[in-house]
Amino acid sequence: VQLVESGGGLVQPGGSLRLSCAASGFTFSRYTMSWYRQPPGKERELVASISSIGGSTNYADSVKGRFTISRDNAKNTVYLQMNSLKPEDTAVYFCRAYYPAVYWGQGTQVTVSS
Question: Buried-most residue among 1, 2, 47, 101 (CB within 10 A)?
Answer without folding.
Answer: 47
